[in-house]
Design a protein that fits this description.
- The protein is α+β, with helices and mostly antiparallel strands and 127 residues long.
- It has helices at residues 77-85, 97-109, 115-123; strands at 8-11, 21-24, 35-42, 52-53, 65-75, 89-92.
- It has a 6-stranded antiparallel beta sheet.
- The radius of gyration is 14 Å and the shape is globular.
- The two termini are 27 Å apart.
Length: 127
């Protein structure tokens, strides 16, 4: 299986841990070893408001939601495929291109985005 920028998936529910929607925001054509993923979480007043999504932006989004840039991860394609094969993640509808662009722009604008995440996005001319 392959993943592309904008593809989304949810993590398998585990006791006492919320299920989040994760999004691939880096360019898979440039690197399959360093794939940047970010997750969506319910927006709270003290949360990162750099990129907010609302109902209608994606079927998973039911209320005001933010991107948790501080929780961004770098994974490999082989790891994503392994997680999918083990049914630890389940694919969801991909983000629309305009929403993906907002999420990428937010990664650059957020004070919480880890520097190594920004470096990958900059190296791929996405930031």
């Amino acid at each position: 299986m392959s993943f592309s920028a904008g593809d989304t998936f949810i993590n398998k529910p585990v006791p006492h841990a919320p299920t989040h929607l994760w999004v691939v925001i880096s360019d898979m054509n440039q690197s399959v070893d360093e794939i940047v993923i970010v997750n969506l979480t319910t927006y709270k007043d003290n949360g990162d408001n750099t990129c907010l999504l609302d109902k209608g932006d994606h079927p998973f989004v039911k209320h005001q939601t933010c991107i948790s840039y501080r929780d961004a991860r770098i994974v490999s394609l082989s790891k994503l495929n392994e997680l999918e094969n083990k049914e630890m993640i389940t694919r969801q509808e991909a983000l629309k291109d305009n929403i993906l662009e907002r999420v990428r722009a937010g990664a650059v604008g957020s004070l919480f985005t880890p520097l190594k995440i920004l470096k990958i996005l900059e190296d791929q001319n996405l930031a």
